[in-house]
Amino acid sequence: MIAFRLNQTPLLSRSAVGRAEELRSDTQALRGGWAESLLLQVNHRGQVAIRDNGLVFVDATELGPEPQPGAVFLGVRDDRHVWAVRVAALTGELADLRVLGGRLDDADAGLLTSALAMLNWHDSAGFSAIDGAASEPTMSGWSRISTSTGHEEFPRTDPAIICLVHDGGDRVLLARQPTWPPRRYSLLAGFVEAGESLEACVVREIKEEVGIVVRDVSYLGSQPWPFPRSVMIGFAAVGDPALPFTFTDGEIAEARWFTRDEVRAALEVGDWASVGDAQLLLPGSISIARGIIESWAGTA
Hints:
Order of helices and strands: HEEEEEEEHHEEEEEEHEEEHH
Radius of gyration: 21 Å
Number of strands: 16
Shape: globular
Structural class: alpha+beta
Largest sheet: 6 strands, mixed
């Protein structure tokens, strides 16, 4: 059986900016750095202003003379504090992370990924999960406090597995969701349940989705996926192509075993956005699925 590893860091796992966690509760330091701080503005569609394939930052003082409630401290870049905030509207050339991910440098990619994850959490965390009272942001955006009991809650990240199932040789299992157009395929994935290990989730999800029992589950890598606030945890596992498919949970419309040559040809075509009559279209570069498939296809 041929083993493989990810041949590069997933695009959204890149980051070249220190998070400076020690400053999140240092009100004096954050106020002192506010005048020189950079501010990343994100609209409710997850879009940001861009210029020359880079993020456009504005002066933080446009928000006010000191750090404002609702702004999230992202870290320190080139000795300047960086913050993010949700805004109602933006002007200029706009794009979202799905489009931008492969074009941003490591610093911009890390900042935008973190900004989306945090702002998406704040959008849905306005009331305490413990007592139901309204909550307010604190720790420069990295936690929220109940206005009733003072209970503190922290950003939520939902773990999900994504797994490349292969036969130990030259074939890989790819699947299509019911809402996807024909010819678009990807890896199997699903959310981790409470009290469940990651490896157990791999086995359960694949059995539920296509009826295949897999073995030799191995970890490959991970990537934040702030749509709205997940982390994708990549695995490989071995399955038997002789077993019939059964689609029991309604999440998969079609599944097929493809050869390595078929996958390599599809990678040459491009991704889901490609036009033409290719029989297999694969995810774009922003997804860890693409990196896993490329790594598997590149093995001998």
